[in-house]
Amino acid sequence: MDPVNSLICVAALAWTTQIVLGWLQINRFNRALALLSECGRVRIGRSAGRFKPRVVLALAIGDEGRITGNFVIKGLTVFANPYSEERLTGAMLDDIRPEVIFPANKSLQEALALAISNKR
Q: What NCBIfam families does its record include (predicted)?
C-alpha cells in the first residue's frame, strides 16, 4: 500500500472513530436528560467558547422552585461524562448566585446563569 492510500485509510478510520464516540456521548447526554426530566421542569445552560472546555449544565426544578436534580458535562473530548453537582441539589432557584457556588470556574458560572435565566 502506498503512502497516499495509507493516509486516506488512517483519516477515514479517525473520522469513523470520531463519529462513533460522538454518538456515544450524545446517547449519554440523552439518557441523563431523560432521567432528569422525571424530577421536574428542565432548564439547560451552556458556556461559550471555541478553544476552551465547554460546560453544559441541566437543572430539574420542582413545583415550588427547588432544584430536585442536576447534571454537568464539561470537557474538550467526547469522553466527558455527566455528573451531579451536589451543591445545587435542594437549593431554591431564586437564591442561587453562580459566582458564590462556583467562584473559581467562569464556565460553570456562565452555564448556571443561563440555566437560571432560561434564555433561549
A: PRK10234.1
DSSP string computed for 16-81: HHHHHHHHHHHHHHHHHHHHHHTTSEEEEEE---SSS-EEEEEEEE-TTSBEEEEEEEEESSTT--
Check residue 84 and report its DSSP letter.
Answer: -
What are the grid coordinates assigned to 62, written together? Answer: 420542582
* Tens digits of residue pLDDT in 92-116: 988 899 999 999 999 999 999 999 9
Mean pLDDT of the 36-45 span: 93
- Could you say which of 3.40.630, 3.90.1010, 3.40.50, 3.40.140 is the CATH number of the domain covering 3-117? 3.90.1010
Answer for the pair 100, 88: CB distance below 8 angstroms, yes or no: no
Distance CA 17, CA 19 (A): 5
Give the mean pLDDT of 49-71. Answer: 90
Strand partners, 75: 54
